[in-house]
Amino acid sequence: MHFKVSKNQTGRKRKQPVSSSGPANSSGTANTAGPSPSSAPSTPSTHTPGDVISMPALPHSGSSSKQLIMFGADGTGTLTSPSNQLWDDKDLELQADIDQPRDTVGRGMDVSKGFTFTEVNTIRASTSKVVCCHFSSDGKLLASGGHDKKAVLWYTDSLKPKSSLEEHSSLITDVRFSPSMPRLATSSFDKTVRVWDADNPGYSLRTFTGHSASVMSLDFHPNKDDLICSCDGDGEIRYWSINNGSCARVFKGGTTQMRFQPRLGRYLAAVAENVVSILDTETQACRHSLKGHTKPIHSVCWDPSGEYLASVSEDSVRVWTLGSGNEGECVHELSCNGLKFHSCVFHPTYPSLLVIGCYQSLELWNMTENKTMTLQAHDGLIAGLAVSTVMGLVASASHDKFVKLWK
Questions:
Q1: Partners of 183 in the beta sheet?
Q2: Which of 34, 115, 133, 368 has the most C-beta neighbours closer than 10 Å?
Q3: What is the spatial distance between Cα 68 and Cα 380, in angstroms, rounded to a whole number?
């Protein structure tokens, strides 16, 4: 097992965005610790070739020994088991300071403060590949889905199963919780979207049929409780009314994945091939066409403020600004260093840190300082990542059939 730290990765320098002004967002997700998401990536990523340090992993002392990552003051990383003390008492005091609210200056992650990222729980979630996962808005439930045609609800605190949702006749491609109600939805290769009651998920509340190809992705609108959106392999996007059980709108524009802008829900990010279309939720007009990826985009994710969007293709990750001023501009870019990028989420407490799911490893990218670290995480492709800002957790779903929690 190898652990690699790359202080700088080869890439391109981007123009500096206009940094957001004003106090931290008061209308964001509840209980969010850390700096204001709206002010995070305020410095451009400057990429210069740098040194890559390789270290062998220390031997594990049993199954309870989890991997632990630390950034030192010089940005280098260390892999160890928790029994090894890597910091003194002063550092531990600084570690506790991380949980305190920061000022609104976009400092992002201060690597001298003993930042850690470690596996806290793991479960064999399926008999076959797991491809998607999502937390409920209160963080108490985690849903996973994949090739065994089932979605499973897990209690986050124990990773014990709450229930199994078994109605799809083919593999599940996406699972999403409603941000405001105890509902979740699943999309599948069986060309349907199903909506479930998270409290009583014995059978689906709604089955939406109408797509003529495999449904690849879906999402709930952040504040229109009744609106759910899905896209299929032919590029068709459908709006569904949960209350009426009917299709409210059909248009073209997305195949791989789609995500509504958090909080405002003004935009819908829809991926087709190597372009992200930023569509107006109301009119479906394309506001921005985000171009720059050369390979097909696998996934997109918004930061909690809805001001930044990250897009991931096999060989690069790009972060775009959509909050103000320079809308549609790429402000950060990371080129892969032999890793195959696939999925991503913004870290729950450090908005300037992006967690990227790769083949077998997680890549932690500090966008403001442009430092990356690689952490061995799974034995297969990390196809899906989820984040709970309330719990401060990241979940990873992999083709190795496992789901893991990280903090």
A1: 197
A2: 133
A3: 20
- Which has the closest alpha carbon to 310: 285, 292, 286? 292
d(CA 377, CA 362): 6
Q: What is the mean pLDDT of residues 86-106?
A: 33
The answer to whether the beta carbons of residues 258 and 237 sit under 8 Å apart is yes
For residue 94, the 8-state DSSP code is: H
Contact in structure between 312 and 299 (CB atoms under 8 Å): yes
Neighbours of 379 (CB within 10 A): 12
Output the DSSP codes for 153-217: EEETTTTEEEEEE---SS-EEEEEE-SSSSEEEEEETTSEEEEEESSSTTS-SEEEE--SS-EEE
Which tokens go with 272?
Answer: 């087709």
Q: What is the DSSP letter of 113?
A: G
State the sign of the Cα–Cα–Cα–Cα dihedral 311, 313, 317, 320: negative
Q: Single out the residue of 138, 120, 145 nearest to residue 179, CA to CA.
A: 138
The residue among 348, 392, 359, 384 whose CA lies nearest residue 143 is: 384
Q: Are 312 and 356 in contact (CB under 8 A)?
A: yes
Q: How many residues does the chain have?
A: 407
pTM of the full predicted structure? 0.76
Please tell me which residue, 336 or 301, carries the higher pLDDT value: 301
3-state helix, strand, coil in the chain (%, to 5): 5, 45, 50
